[in-house]
Amino acid sequence: MWEQVQQAPPDPIIGVTDGWRADPDPRKLNLGVGAYRTEEGKPYVLKAVREAEQQILADPAMNKEYLPISGNAEFNRLARTLALGPNSPAIREARVATVQALSGTGSLRVGAEFLSTHLPASFPRIVYLPNPTWGNHKSIFGKAGFQVREYRYFDAATRGLDFGGMTADLTAAPPGSVVLLHACAHNPTGVDPSREQWRQLLELTRRTRLVPFFDSAYQGFASGDLDADAAAVRLFAEAGLELVLAQSFAKNMGLYGERAGALSVVTKSREVATRVESQLKLVIRPMYSNPPMHGAAIAARVMGDPKLNAMWQEELRGMAKRIKAMRQVLYDQLRARNIPGDWSFVLKQIGMFSFTGLSRSQCEMLVKKWHIHLTLDGRISMAGLSAATAPYLAEAIADVVAN
Ligand code: LMR
Q: What residue stretches are annotated with the Aminotransferase class I/classII large domain (predicted)?
């Protein structure tokens, strides 16, 4: 019966880790998936997370009952407050519907499904994604029935933002289209709009009547400051816009495999928010019934306990700082080898990734000859690099650029 099933290609991001695992070379490096590593190249469980986990296990009230369809209510409350801020008018007026979902991907998927069913009938089912964007965005919105279009984002010549192209494409979008915005630390480019450009994007979104959908996967990772990294989302929410927000706790709490995330829909009133939440539950129930409890319980404790929260923020600053330090180390190593071109973008780009501009064949050479595993669009995870491995990467880049 299954003989006709075709072999699917490996996932462009997760498949990189499979390739790295299978590589027997001792020099191998995994700079593919965006996962934080220590200076020793090891996965890192935050101390605040370990502490929260111990508290949960020691709690006699702990059980394994089903969570509600909308998940852990305390986690939802803390997650939306983290993004929208403690003084958010939308939260004060109880006009935000939040559900726990399966990290960033699951939140985006539930959000896309909800929009596809509940946007007004007169709105087109079109989503505008930045070019380039995280590879999964296209499939997520495509599966939810959206027509996927792109807006210009990255300028290959300057390795910066093509703001003119972005605003031209979004101005031309049909009213009612969804626009996907990376809240901070754009993946894969590490290039974000400036504060002033965000203000212009807000006006454009309002004028063109676009539906903003923020993907917030790196709050705290861009700058080490949770509030600073939420500035764009807060700007839009405080201007009174209705918006959708997907939050992941994979990176900023290191909860990758726990799948802790939240989807919030900011509405005009408490009544609407209540109805929206009831419909989000109808999306979730036939998909996976209700979300897993452990990751959300950890995240809720870490956010809600002042001592753990302070510990978390300190570790977050430490992780962001190490990634920034890696940018400097790599830049110095590249400069020391006199590799042609301006590599200052390595220092300027924000967040976990650096978008190198290396071609697909250069990337393939990095994988095959140098055992450096990366996505073939030229993205490298700076979080996977260490002072010990940066010289090797620079040497490999010098080689593939020269060939
Ligand atoms: C990445 O872009 O590497 C991460 O967001 C992990 C993933 O799920 O793709």
A: 27-397
Ligand 1 binding pocket includes 33 (Cβ within 6 Å):
yes
Ligand 1 atom at minimal distance to the Cα of residue 34? 3
- Read off the tokens for 213: 């959908």
CATH, domain range 73-304: 3.40.640.10
Q: 11-30 pLDDT, tens per residue?
A: 999 999 999 999 999 999 99
How far out from the chain centre does Cα 307 lie? 26
Task: Give alpha helix (H) positions in 220-305.
Answer: 231-238, 270-288, 294-304
Select which of 162, 251, 370, 377 is catalytic: 251
Which amino acid type is present at position 62? M
Provide CATH code, domain 14-45+317-402. Answer: 3.90.1150.10
Q: Is 332 a catalytic residue?
A: no
Q: Enumerate the domain spans of the chain.
A: 14-45+317-402, 73-304
Beta bridge mates, 150: 129
Tell me if 14-45+317-402 shares its fold with 73-304.
Answer: no
ipTM of the complex: 0.92
pTM of the model: 0.96
Which DSSP string do the residues of 161-185 spell out, in sequence order?
Answer: E-HHHHHHHHHTSPTT-EEEEESSS
How far is the C-alpha of 355 from the C-alpha of 346, rounded, in Å?
8
Residue 134 annotated to the active site: yes
Confirm if 55 and 47 have CB atoms less than 8 A apart: no
